[in-house]
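ARCHIVE CARD
CATEGORY: sequence design from structure
SOURCE FIELD: tokenized fold
FIELD CONTENT:
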């Protein structure tokens, strides 16, 4: 731990050092894992430079809010605005550990998106690059969702995805708010719809796209259904 104002000895009462980095306290990294900007989002302006490179909360650290946001960003890139065919061809060649020499423009594109890295003069695909290709290949289906609960502290929500075999996934609360225009208090129990990669094997690999509030069923459709069924199927009325 450094002797900076961010250090545990500078705080009152003294804080426990983070066991995984030298720039933060354990409490700071815990908060940083729930910020889409990492530890930077959990400190004041004068300490930003100290924690900016914290290894505990980078977008490459699986399970952090910064990582979840990064997954959404990559999937949207792959589905909505894919790279040129030549850039994808090079990325797939690297995935297959083939020898390839990309053009300067292609290499610039792959580096800007951090889909490749140069290790000792050898070009290699990154986890981000692998996620991009997975998003290009995996099928996505319109699926019904139910928001089971929200956690305001971690800014996440537990969502049941009807068409995913694992059932529940964790998503960013701000994604649901931003895409549905609902307030946090309106989300628990709400029925939504989204495009989902339902073939994902891990919950963290399920990424929702185009989240929308499910339209309620017409009154004529639900007149003969048991009480509450229309709301559960079609959304809040």
């Amino acid at each position: 731990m450094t002797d900076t104002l961010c250090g545990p000895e500078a705080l009152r009462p003294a804080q426990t050092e983070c066991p995984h980095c030298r720039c933060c306290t354990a409490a700071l990294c815990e908060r940083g894992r729930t910020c889409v900007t990492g530890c930077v989002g959990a400190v004041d302006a004068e300490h930003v430079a100290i924690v900016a490179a914290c290894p505990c909360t980078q977008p490459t650290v699986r399970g952090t809010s910064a990582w979840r946001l990064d997954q959404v960003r990559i999937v949207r890139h792959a589905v909505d605005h894919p790279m040129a065919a030549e850039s994808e061809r090079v990325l797939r060649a690297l995935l297959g550990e083939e020898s390839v020499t990309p053009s300067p423009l292609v290499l610039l594109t792959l580096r800007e998106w951090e889909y490749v890295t140069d290790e000792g003069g050898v070009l290699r695909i990154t986890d981000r690059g692998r996620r991009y290709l997975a998003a290009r290949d995996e099928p996505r289906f319109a699926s019904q969702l139910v928001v089971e609960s929200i956690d305001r502290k971690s800014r996440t929500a537990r969502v049941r995805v009807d068409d995913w075999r694992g059932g529940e996934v964790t998503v960013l609360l701000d994604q649901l708010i931003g895409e549905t225009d609902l307030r946090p208090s309106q989300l628990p129990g709400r029925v939504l719809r989204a495009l989902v990669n339902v073939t994902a094997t891990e919950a963290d690999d399920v990424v929702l796209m185009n989240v929308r509030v499910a339209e309620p069923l017409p009154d004529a459709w639900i007149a003969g259904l048991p009480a509450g069924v229309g709301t559960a199927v079609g959304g809040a009325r």
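CARD ANNOTATION: The CA atoms of residues 160 and 168 lie 4 Å apart. Strands lie at 116-119, 122-125, 141-151, 156-161, 168-172, 191-196, 208-213.
SHELF: design records, drawer C
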